[in-house]
Amino acid sequence: MPLSPEQSAEIEALRSQSAQTLRATVPGMEAHLYKAFPVLDHGFVRVIDYMGDDAAICQAARVSYGKGTKSVQNDEGLIRYLMRHWHSTPFEMCELKLHVKLPVFVARQWIRHRTANVNEYSARYSILDREFYIPAPEHLAAQSEVNNQGRGQALEGEEAARVLDYLKADSMRAYDHYEEMISTEGQQGLARELARMNLPANIYTQWYWKVDLHNLLHFLRLRADSHAQYEIRVYAEEMCKIVADWVPFAFKAFEDYRMGGATLSATALDCVRRMLAGESVTKENSGMSAGEWREFQAVLSE
């Protein structure tokens, strides 16, 4: 299960408390605080703390313009301008701290985003739970024939059943041996920091992850994309819902300009101009490589 009884009790205790504050608060985020949103079979995402809101972004942006400019341009318009022109520092004024439970192989992919503060559950100090990510049958897929780091068609029939059996049996066997190695009954017991090496990459870990909004949106642009690996994408999609309730103006601009927009090279932009002028543009006369042309066609057809 995603939450232990102790964690559920802690959440209830935290949500039962309230305090007056002079700092900016967001009703949508106050409703999310401490709640665990399930992801995958045993994982979750929950908001521990946040700082700032849409107004904080505008406040930071306007500091260089002086008092009184708010009447010239409203907050949403300013945020869209900042997003459209790739300004970053105003978005860095907002921060979010999450508690995330996730499989180790997802964590290793996630940690590639090095612009956050992370504190992970210590398997040197504590004993990991017997919880493993086992994909649903529809997410068991063959290697893609066109993408070396992607999936192809889902496995079927006996092959899918055999793979699931391997994943379940190997995970349990590795954990059995882990428990046996660290046990001190009738033996010295192997140190936890060594015994953990035998655990599979689908075991669950947990961490606190704190990041500013600029770098969070960069994470979401890559990981909530349809081409991202499913197991990290579902976390990003859950986080998108949270961010939309936190900074709705910023998230709408992000959806328009980052998730829903496209970046064109100078060559691709020239091809668009030629097309608008009535010229027939092909891969051969486009000046693009085969890969660039394929991606350009995909942008135009979306």
TrEMBL record:
UniProt entry tagged with the keyword Metal-binding: no
PROSITE patterns in the cross-refs: THYX (PS51331)
Cofactor: FAD
Active-site residues annotated for this sequence: 223 (involved in ionization of n3 of dump, leading to its activation)
A GO biological-process term: dTTP biosynthetic process
Binding-site residues, dUMP: 109-112, 120-124, 196, 223
The family this protein is said to belong to: Belongs to the thymidylate synthase ThyX family.
Protein name according to UniProt: Flavin-dependent thymidylate synthase
UniProt organism field: Aliishimia ponticola
